[in-house]
């Protein structure tokens, strides 16, 4: 049903996007990148957090990025707490491995980490652990009404 809610969201909003479905596993960044034939960082990883108020939020980052706890706390004024596994489906309408910012069960605030700006095109999940959506980053911002943030660890310089 989750993939269907994403497709309906695209249709209802007249968006020229398509959910690509596959037999391959796309539940992790590594498997998604291998399945779609793109580099891991091009996978737009969607992570759900639960704030102390009980509000759920989504943060999208490039595939290999890691949230920096200090930056998260500076932005949200509290410690980063992932949505508990048993609440993910209820909070988003999507199963673990398919969480994306489209076709959500209820409106959630969406944050886009600046790491996504490294790419013109990214691949967030499409509502299941066997799907993705190829989407231009500038379109992703408009669709999600996402706020750009800097909450990921800075890359370690190569020696």
From TrEMBL:
Highest rank taxon of the organism: Bacteria
YbaK/aminoacyl-tRNA synthetase-associated domain span: 25-139
SUPFAM superfamilies to which the protein is assigned, alphabetical: YbaK/ProRS associated domain
Pfam family, one: tRNA_edit
Stored InterPro entries: YbaK/aa-tRNA-synt-asso_dom_sf (IPR036754), YbaK/aa-tRNA-synth-assoc-dom (IPR007214)
Database matches in Gene3D superfamilies: YbaK/aminoacyl-tRNA synthetase-associated domain
MF terms (GO), sorted A to Z: aminoacyl-tRNA deacylase activity
Protein name: YbaK/aminoacyl-tRNA synthetase-associated domain-containing protein
Biological source species: Fusobacterium ulcerans 12-1B
